[in-house]
Amino acid sequence: MQGIAVRALRKEFPVRDKGIFGPRTTKTAVDGLDLDIPPGRITGLLGLNGAGKTTTIKTVATLLRPTSGSVTVDGLGTVTDARAVRRRINLIAGGERMVYTRMTGRENLWYFGQLYDVPKARLRARTDELLALVGLTDAADTMVERYSRGMAQRLAIARGLINEPAYLLLDEPTLGLDAPIARDLRRVVADLAAAGTGVLLTSHYLAEVEELCGHVYVISAGRHLAEGSPAQLKAATGSHRTVRITVTNPGEATDAAVAPFGATTRLLADGSQLVTLRHPDDIAGPLAAAIVGAGGSIGGLEIAEASLEDAILTLADTPQAAPA
Ligand SMILES: Nc1ncnc2c1ncn2[C@@H]1O[C@H](COP(=O)(O)OP(=O)(O)OP(=O)(O)O)[C@@H](O)[C@H]1O
């Protein structure tokens, strides 16, 4: 069976409630999750802070053992066949650099390549390819302790690709990266997925998720909340477009004309008036016509499409999103 299959995954951590002498309890970080990460698709995993995303990714990466339930990668269990699973996957976590500072960039890739059993003949070429891919060719023989934060993070991305993983696990991969490098990384990830790599992505940058992901799971308190393509999630939550119209000659007639649409108006510092309307339909035309009909002069019109961010915020606000 191809793909990563997460089935009824549950992960509890032992915790002490009030300091180290407090009573022992357990914290349930993941509470019965089912996820499918097929080859060739970028699958998003979204949720607010503490929803259980990192715990899920670490469990898929064989770094944590499930309390119950299972994770399989191409049919191989992450507990029973951990070694074989590790050859098929790799993890890039934006917050952690996961590279050695007392080695050069090239030495790091060489070292990790050997850990992943990349054949030596292939490793030399692969190292050069990856250093070029992340823009570190010139810094290849510099100690990582002299790298900037962004350079170290780019090296961590190259490290994550060293074994040409069939599945790539990305936990906030663009966290703290400069915009052009983040954009390059997104392109690399999209190309890898187009070539057949299965990707699991968590990111707080919802525009990034919207751009890349074919399917998104939304979780809350370790449980499944919603899933679908970004377009389906937006439709399901009834996310609204926002229309903003600037009127250069404000007056009561404009207020009266836009009121039936449910629009709000606000006077701006330059004396113009901003009319704002959130609506599921394409209503900018009739709204603008009503303003002009009432004698208003339009100085600007802007339509912001509904975003995945709106959809996630709507989901987070729904009662079932609250932790039980
Ligand atoms: N080792 C641990 N011991 C105890 N509790 C933990 C441990 N790791 C995670 N947790 C708890 O499990 C829950 C889920 O954490 P997790 O890091 O998986 O969430 P997340 O969705 O990745 O959050 P964020 O967006 O903040 O990174 C949180 O309440 C967290 O405090």
Model description:
- With 324 residues, this protein is of the alpha/beta class.
- The chain is built from eleven helices and 14 strands.
- Strands 6-7-8-3-9-10 form a six-stranded mixed sheet, sandwiched between helices. A four-stranded antiparallel sheet has the order 2-1-4-5. A four-stranded antiparallel sheet has the order 12-13-11-14, with helices on one face.
- Adenosine-5'-triphosphate (ATP) binds next to strand 1, strand 2 and helix 1.
- The site of adenosine-5'-triphosphate (ATP) has 12 residues, from strand 1, strand 2 and helix 1.
Record keyword descriptors for this entry.
single chain; 324 residues; alpha/beta; 6-stranded mixed beta sheet; 4-stranded antiparallel beta sheet; 14 strands; 28% strand; globular; binds adenosine-5'-triphosphate; ATP binding; ABC transporter ATP-binding protein; AAA+_ATPase; nucleotide-binding; antibiotic resistance
